[in-house]
């Protein structure tokens, strides 16, 4: 359930005028901005933007950006955008970082409905003149792919690569030959099946899943076995794992994960715990958590953003802003159950000023 408190009737013209007044003069009236925007849903916020532009021939978002600053400005900016456009911006920021935030791409790909995700991809293309898939593929190569290959080449595994050419002769090089066989001594997997971070992420952002309730128990049983074999052999980046996670409906995946737990006495994410520096493994765990129980996942993101040394304002803002109109009330209840502290209280303790006031408003609790 949503946390924002929205009046039954609003006047978008009056709201536009109130925001204009809040931005005029020497000082900005941040409280007035919060009192209006913090109590309007996505449809109303869009109508206010249109009314403001019609009245004053000025872009409201640009005006607010020029008036505000810091974490407060970032939170207001993300809140006032249409949800699909906001996700497009979040994805682009995550992709363009020096070390891309893969978990943000996974969140957007795996916690939105198929129609919402499709809207994000359209919004991304309209705003950035590239497809989301294109930018994910272009900006998640490099270190993560090399790390994946380095791990494969680490002892105790030794690589014996033979390449057969048309003349029947053997060549110890030629990794790019059109006809080759690669064997990994001490490891059952074949090198071509070892996929990398960018391939998992591209598969996720390209997905358009079935969104119904129907499940196939036989498929769930079969794919739970496939996942267990891959995890047991530590073939975390096996192509079958990527196929299952990027094509199956969420209900089907939940049935598969439940079968995995029932058959092996533990969850798949527990079996995936390992090297904290393995980027692919972290992305894989995030993917499964987002698909299986997004509320539990977001509760953990909030907990980590507050408990760390120095608040992670970016993560805190992202979760509150993107979930306030969806399921933030349920996430708040889960947070209290797990931490014995109300989320409102935790946020109030770790934030300050207008930024704090806006977050508390979106959480449904005034400062």
UniProtKB/TrEMBL annotation:
Keyword entries, A-Z: Annexin, Calcium, Calcium/phospholipid-binding, Metal-binding, Repeat
A GO-annotated cellular component: plasma membrane
Span list, region Disordered: 159-183
GO molecular function, one term: phosphatidylserine binding
SMART domains reported in the protein's UniProt record: ANX
UniProt feature, compositional bias: Polar residues: 160-169
Pfam families: Annexin
An example Gene Ontology biological process: response to water deprivation
PROSITE patterns, alphabetized: ANNEXIN_1, ANNEXIN_2
Free-text comment on this protein's domains from its UniProt entry: A pair of annexin repeats may form one binding site for calcium and phospholipid.
PANTHER family associated with the record: ANNEXIN (PTHR10502)
Family: Belongs to the annexin family.
Designated name of the protein: Annexin
């Amino acid at each position: 359930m949503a946390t924002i408190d929205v009046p039954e009737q609003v006047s978008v013209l009056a709201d536009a005028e109130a925001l204009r007044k809040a931005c005029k003069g020497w000082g900005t009236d941040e409280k007035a901005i919060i009192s209006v925007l913090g109590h309007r849903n996505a449809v109303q916020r869009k109508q206010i933007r249109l009314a403001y532009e019609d009245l004053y021939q000025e872009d409201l978002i640009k005006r607010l950006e020029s008036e505000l600053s810091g974490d407060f400005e970032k939170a207001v900016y993300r809140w006032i955008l249409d949800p699909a456009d906001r996700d497009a911006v979040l994805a682009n920021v995550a992709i363009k970082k020096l070390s891309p935030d893969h978990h943000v791409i996974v969140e957007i790909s795996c916690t939105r409905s198929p129609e919402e995700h499709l809207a994000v991809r359209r919004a991304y293309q309209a705003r950035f003149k590239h497809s989301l898939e294109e930018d994910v593929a272009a900006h998640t190569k490099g270190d993560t792919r090399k790390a994946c290959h380095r791990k494969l080449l680490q002892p105790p595994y030794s690589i014996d690569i033979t390449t057969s050419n048309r003349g029947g002769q053997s060549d110890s090089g030629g990794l790019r030959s059109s006809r080759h066989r690669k064997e990994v001594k001490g490891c059952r997997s074949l090198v071509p099946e070892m996929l990398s971070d960018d391939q998992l992420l591209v598969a996720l952002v390209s997905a358009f899943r079935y969104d119904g309730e129907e499940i196939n128990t036989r498929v769930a049983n079969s794919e739970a076995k496939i996942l267990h074999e891959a995890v047991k052999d530590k073939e975390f980046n096996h192509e079958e794992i990527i196929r299952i996670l990027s094509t199956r409906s969420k209900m089907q995946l939940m049935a598969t994960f439940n079968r995995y737990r029932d058959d092996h006495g533990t969850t798949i994410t527990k079996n995936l715990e390992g090297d904290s520096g393995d980027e692919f493994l972290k992305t894989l765990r995030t993917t499964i958590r987002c698909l299986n129980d997004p509320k539990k996942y977001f509760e953990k993101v909030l907990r980590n953003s507050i408990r760390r040394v120095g608040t992670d304002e970016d993560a805190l803002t992202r979760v509150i802003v993107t979930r306030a109109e969806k399921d933030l009330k349920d996430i708040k209840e889960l947070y209290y159950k797990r931490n014995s502290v109300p989320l409102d209280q935790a946020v109030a303790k770790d934030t300050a000023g207008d930024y704090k006031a806006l977050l508390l408003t979106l959480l449904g609790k005034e400062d």
